[in-house]
Amino acid sequence: MDKLDEIRALALRHAGVKYSGMPRLSILSVTQPTELSALVYDPMASIVLQGTKRTIIGDQVFDYGPGQTMVVAAEITAMGQIIEASPEKPFLAINLNLDPAVIMNVVLYLSVTPELQLQPGFAFSMANAELIGAWQRLLEVCERPKEIPVMALHLEHELMFRLMLSPHAEMLRQIAGVDSRLSHIRRAMGWIRQHYTEQLSIEDMAAVAGMSESVFHRRFKAVTALSPLQYQKHIRLQEARRRMVSKEADAASVSFAVGYKSTSQFSREYKRLFGEPPRRDADMVQTMVETGLQRA
């Protein structure tokens, strides 16, 4: 039995279970392929144990499977879809939301390197044996819940250390840096999410980030693979979808509530992102929720 086989058995036993001492850890198990779905990633690290997932960020498409990791450094909008899963071999992945304080504690023990050119806010790589072992030990403590209060943080530090020795090191350093260029972009991203219904200008966004408009636009797209206004549009449409699915209002009312001035423009852009007109898409999602089907 190889390391991934051992972790798969652990993941199947603990999938969907939340542990009070490990609130940022989650184990995903999905038994069938899913529809392509829009989402916003929080800063996180993930490893796929079984099956295959497709993630679309901007115009880039990534298919990743067993033993591959994804690290996200900012609140990235994306489209996600599980493309390989079955009841016999469900899609399995471990996700850990990243804590900058934990990363900083690890960085302090490593030699300091100068800040490199701003990188994308996401990356994929194949995990080596040491990194897989760190994921396994983090998951094994779920077998001994009484140890979680003492061991969980220690094991998370080990996992961050192994990630710091991987191709994701510079991205993780930028998450920990309170004055890094990434932190300035994330500040603007948070401001956009707070003011997504308003008519925002690049000038306003750049001022929040403390950059010139041209530098801000270039760096924002380097991190998110979207322009700032495209990012705002994705946030608007995802909130519109949430409201439609929860049946808070009809499409016209929702379109104005999230900042659109034209219902026809709202419908066009909604269909372009989600593949169906607003009401039809919301009804389809609601049906999936009611029948217990999972989305990526």
Explain this structure.
The protein has helices at about 5-15, 100-105, 130-140, 150-165, 170-175, 180-195, 200-210, 215-225, 230-245, 250-255, 265-275, 280-290, and strands at about 25-30, 35-40, 45-50, 50-55, 60-65, 70, 75-85, 90-95, 120-125. A five-stranded antiparallel sheet has the order 1-8-3-6-9. It has a four-stranded antiparallel sheet with strand order 2-7-4-5. The chain contains twelve helices and nine strands. The model has no long low-confidence stretch (mean pLDDT about 90). Strand 4 (about 50-55) and strand 5 (about 60-65) form a beta hairpin. The protein has about 300 residues and is α+β, with helices and mostly antiparallel strands. The longest helix has 18 residues, at about 230-245. The chain is about 50% helix and about 20% strand.
Q: Could you provide a short overview of the structure?
A:
With 296 residues, the protein is α+β, with helices and mostly antiparallel strands.
Q: Structural class per helix/strand content?
A: alpha+beta
Number of strands: 9
- pLDDT average, as an integer? 88
- Helical residues, percent: 40-55%
Strand order of the largest sheet: 1-8-3-6-9
Rg calc: 20 Å
The backbone outline, from C-alpha atoms, is globular
Terminal CA distance: 28 Å
> Regions with pLDDT < 50 over 5+ consecutive residues?
none
Number of helices: 12
